[in-house]
Amino acid sequence: MRANMTDADMAAFCIAAVMVVVMGMTLLTVVFRSTNQNRTTTQSSTGGQSTGNKTRHAFRPVFTVFNISLLGMVLGSAALFASVLLSLPQSHKPGTVKGATVLESIGGTLFESCYCIYTWSRSQSLIGESGSILYWILTALAILNPILFMAQLVTAVLFEYQLSSIQLYHDVAVATLAGMVLMDAGMLSCFCYFLLKNAAPLSSTGQFNGNSEAKKQWNRTSIIAKYGAFSCGASVVSLGIIVGNQLLPSLNAYANLLIVCAYSGAAMTSIVLLVMKIKL
User: Fold this and answer.
1) Which residues contact 39 (CB under 8 A, 6 or more apart)?
2) What is the DSSP string of 75-87?
3) How far apart are CA 71 and CA 31, in angstroms?
4) Is the pTM of this model over 0.85?
5) How far apart are the first and last CA of the chain?
């Protein structure tokens, strides 16, 4: 550890270390839940097959868009915290330690790209009810944002090897941040609109007004809206902390602690979406 570690730096380091463990446990939960879902169906559909075929069928549920995206978000979050553990013992100023900037960019790219894919794939039918213009804007952002994050990763690697200026990296980072803020704000408004305008259709006796299939569909959509709103809210708070950390020099003494808090928001987003998956 460097000699000028502040109390805020030490707190950030300890939180990051704990969160790496938490994300490791979350990763195991994602894998466990994915490989054990629909076990009864899998077993019944593989009767009479060889052990090798049964094993392949058992792991097939893992390789879906939702599961891979969740895995990517958890791994990305872990990489973000690991970048803090790598840089903090050597420098107070974020983004100045060799290797840490690239690891941070890898983690951010993996998390945000998978977050866009997961949230959009899970929510596009609900968002489509909010209006065609907003739907297509959010569709464009869901496609554009992962590309921007890949560009940010490329510029980070180029800067690491002194093949690009820090200004280019910052410009791409600002564009990426703006894209994520717009997408989160748009999706959050859609989720809140649904929750406010679509109350459960209950009869005068308090019973659900519809058949069991309609009730199941409404419950599913409601879960997506509720947990989607929570995850977008956590993402917006995380992005807000990052912006504030960059724009307010007076917070420089707490820069690393604020960054860890922002990364914790990303981790919370992953956990909320995992709970959504379990509820569905």
Assistant:
1) 58
2) HHHHHHHHHHHHH
3) 8
4) no
5) 45
